[in-house]
Each structure stands twice: as structure tokens, then as C-alpha cells.
Amino acid sequence: MKKYILHFSLLLAVTLLFSACRTNKFNTTKVMNKDFTQYRTYGWLTPIDSLSKDYFSNDIARENIMIAANTEVEKLGLTYSKENPDILFRYIAIVNNKSRLIWSNGGWGWGMGPWGWGGGWGWGMGWGGGWSQPVGREGYRYAHIIVEAVDRKEDAVVWQARGSREVRNPERAINKLPGIIQGIFKQYPVRK
Fold first, then answer.
1. Which stretches are annotated as coiled coil (predicted)?
2. How far apart are CA 48 and CA 125, in angstroms?
């Protein structure tokens, strides 16, 4: 029974490690000493066209972003105004092509394989040493949603936040946009 608990615990730890690699990451910056409580109304600027590889340049993605963003901005206590809002928001969607190394898992060791205890190459449980070396590269895509807040009177960006995530499937990425937008607005300097 202890053996099964150990295997389950190990499997759970590995699963959590791999799932942590695909989480959203958030970064933010703002103008220091800016009083964000002065902003009571908001509006929207046209999104900036960018290299989105057609992932987020469709009606569904734009609508998901705007619905989620309006919900989050109103949670901050701001009211939408079409006429002379205090602060203007805009977003930028970017999808980058990236690559990473693929590593081998060669090595030696002692352990229990299909024919009992012994040393050498093979599979199974055990201990030992070995090496890992790069054997190639794999391509992947990384998406960024950037939201900027522009002070309308100063015509200057006063806050910016970015939510980033690896993208494997465009449809799933679009469905995850509300969560990314929610995380971005958690970075806003004033919370209601």
C-alpha cells in the first residue's frame, strides 16, 4: 500500500510541475507617485494591431477581451463614459514564435527492471547517475495580452500590465482570455 501511495505522490508532484509550466504570468509597471484614485470614468482606445498570428485578431477574441476587461474595470469602481473619460484603456495582443531545447535523459544506474535487480541500461525504478544533453529544438508559441491605461488629459501611458501564456491551441487560448484579463486587472494600482 505504501508503494502505491509513493507512486501516486510522485505522479502528482510531476503533474503539478508540468502544469505549473503552463500558467499565466503577469508583469506590471506604472508611473510612480501617480494618484490613481483621481480616475473615476474610463473609455476605450482602438486596440493596437500587432503580430498576433491571427490568434486574437478575430471577433470572438476581441469580444471576449472587451467583455472581461469591462467587467474587471467596473469592479475597480470606474464608470464607463463615452464623453471625456478620465482614463482610456487599450490592449495589444501579441503571439511570438519561440523555441526551446529538448534534452535527452540518457544514463546508467541500478534498479529493478523487467528481469529483477541488476545494473545497466533499461527502464524501471532505481537509482544511478547519468547525463542530460540537448538533442534538438522544438518550436512553440507564446501569447501576450498587454493592457495600457492612458491619462486622457496628459495623453500619456500611466499604467501597463501584461499577461502571458504558452499557446498550444488557438481556440483554447481564446477561451482562456477572460482569466488573463482578470489577472491583468488585479495588477491595477487601486483596488476597490
1. none
2. 53
User: 9 is written with which cell numbers?
Assistant: 505522490
Distance CA 162, CA 156 (A): 18
Nearest to 176 by CA among 163, 162, 161, 187: 163
C-alpha R_g of the chain: 24
Q: Map grid coordinates 482610456 to a residue.
A: 88
* Residues 88, 82: Cα–Cα separation, whole Å: 10
Q: Where exactly are the structural domains of the chain?
A: 24-105+129-185
The string of DSSP letters for 96-160 reads: EEEEEEEE---B--EEEETTEEEESS--SEEE--B---EEEEEEEEEEEEEEEEEETTTTEEEEE
The pTM score is 0.70
User: For residue 23, what are the CA distances in angstroms to 54, 63, 79, 165, 167?
Assistant: 22, 23, 31, 6, 11
Looking at domain 24-105+129-185, its CATH class is: alpha beta
